[in-house]
Amino acid sequence: MRTVIFDLDGTLADTSADLICAANACFKGLGMGTPLDPVADALTAFHGGRAMLRLGFSRLGEVSESEVDIQYPLLLAAYEEGIDRETRLYPGAVEAVEALRRAGFATGICTNKPERLAEILISRLGVRDLFGSLVGADTLPVRKPDPAPYRLSVERAGGALDRSMLVGDTDTDRRTAAAAGVPVALATFGPAGRGVTDFAPEATFDAFDELPSLVAKLIF
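RE: above sequence
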C-alpha cells in the first residue's frame, strides 16, 4: 500500500509556543527568567527539549549538560501539563490527510517527540484516528534521522517502504528520508520558511491543499 508518513511538530501542528513555554518554566524555576522567545526561537523548539534548554543556558552563561539532563524531565512534565494550550493544527492538515486516505494511501506519524506525549497531543487535537501508526523518539533505541523509526512507522501503518514518502519541515526529515531511500516533501510554512529548499528535498509545499496532488506524483 502507498504510504505517507508525517512529522508532527512544525509539519502537522504548530507546537512551538507550548514547547517554549515548557522550557521557560524550567528557567523560571531556577530563578533565571524566560530567555526563550516563542516566535524567534520556534525553529529551535522543533529540534526538541534538550535543544531549547541548551539555547537558554547559552544565553544565560555556560551550557552544562548535567543541568540539561536534570531539567529535561521537568520540561517534559511542564509540557504535558500545557501540551495543547496554544498548539494548533496547520490550516488544511486534516483535509489533506483525509483526502490521502480516501485516495487509498495509508498514513502515519514519525516524530522526535516522546511517543506518549505525541499520543496525548494528537488525541487531544482529535486526529488520532487519521493515522495508522505513531512512532516517537523513544519507541526504538534510535530516533530520526536514523531511518529505523521511519521504517517502523511505514510497517505499522500497513504500507511498503518502496511505495512510501515522508512529509516534514526540517533537515532532520530530509536526512531521515535520504537514509531510508524515500522521497521527502518539506513544508515552507514553518519557522525555516523557504529556507527548506537548501536541504534539496524532492518537493516543497506552501499549503496543505497542494499536498495530495504532490504525493500522487512522488509515489506510484
